[in-house]
Design goal:
The protein is of the alpha/beta class. Helices cover 54% and strands 9% of the residues. It has helices at residues 5-27, 46-58, 79-92, 111-130, 141-154, 158-161, 180-190, 206-222, 226-255, 264-268, 272-285, 295-306; strands at 37-41, 65-72, 98-102, 134-136, 167-168, 171-172, 314-316, 320-322. The strands form 2 sheets. A 6-stranded mixed beta sheet has the order 3-2-1-4-6-5, with helices on both faces. A two-stranded antiparallel sheet has the order 7-8. α3 (79-92) links the parallel β2 (65-72) and β3 (98-102). α1 (5-27) packs across α2 and α11 packs across α12.
Amino acid sequence: MGPHPAVAAIRLAVRRVLHDVLREWQDGSPASGTAPLVLAACSGGADSMALASALAFEAPKLGIAAGAVTVDHGLQEGSAARALEVAGRLRDLGLDPVDAVGVTVGRGGGPEAAARVARYAALDRAAEQHGAAAVLLGHTRDDQAETVLLGLARGSGIRSLSGMPPVNGRYRRPFLRLDRDTTRKACLVQGLPVWDDPHNADPAYTRARVRHEALPVLEKSLGKGVVEALARTAQLSRDDADALDIWATRAESEVRDPDGALDAERLGELPPAVRRRVIRRAAIAAGSPAGSLFARHIEEVDRLVTGWRGQGPLHLPGGVEADRRCGR
């Protein structure tokens, strides 16, 4: 008999990603005799423990070294001891190296955003220290649905609705097509102990409210399948956003003057979605930080193209100034 269907599902998802990592590694012509290292980011919860177990099972069959990183955010009593316990479980799975890393969480952008920034910084450091080819993250289809709802609430456009990408630099998310129940079942049948972070159920956190309040209400009102539909929306939105980005990249070269200014007339002939992408790219290239450049900033600059009434220059984040002079 083969493995339980849930275990088979998580292993297949990880195997597919490892094949991609191995192919990219081989295409990069690494030194003879070396093997890529792949790390799993693991909090000790069901999603990431399932991820770590699948990585430990699949990586050796492909000649890939497999390790893990667990991050102690220091936000709960006993968190350091818990991180060491999780690290021990990861080593018991056969993963090596395994790092338990403590971080200091700042205050910028709210507690969730600050914890995320600290966590990814720690993962980046671990990946660079060990020379890892990739870091696997345990986000599931349910996490993707929550991300789409949060993006919808922010009203920040189609890119926000595209959710989390399956591949983002060194980061890979094998489980975006699997639901949370599958990862929990996989841990249960393998006898893997898991830790349920109380923050995930704390209504003080926005994502926890979406998970335990908003999504259940939607499913009660609209019927089952809301999570799948939101995840599908993420993929469709990502495809559309990628296409528009490619269009904007090509259009930018056609509307830029030799000195870098944008031709207002040619810019105005572009569809709004493409034109605003060109404007955003130009603002970032001029020094405006992407994370501080919001839709309202781009809309204000867009009015210099579509609603020109002789208005004065606009001040954008990063000390960048947008002005219209002589049709540019």
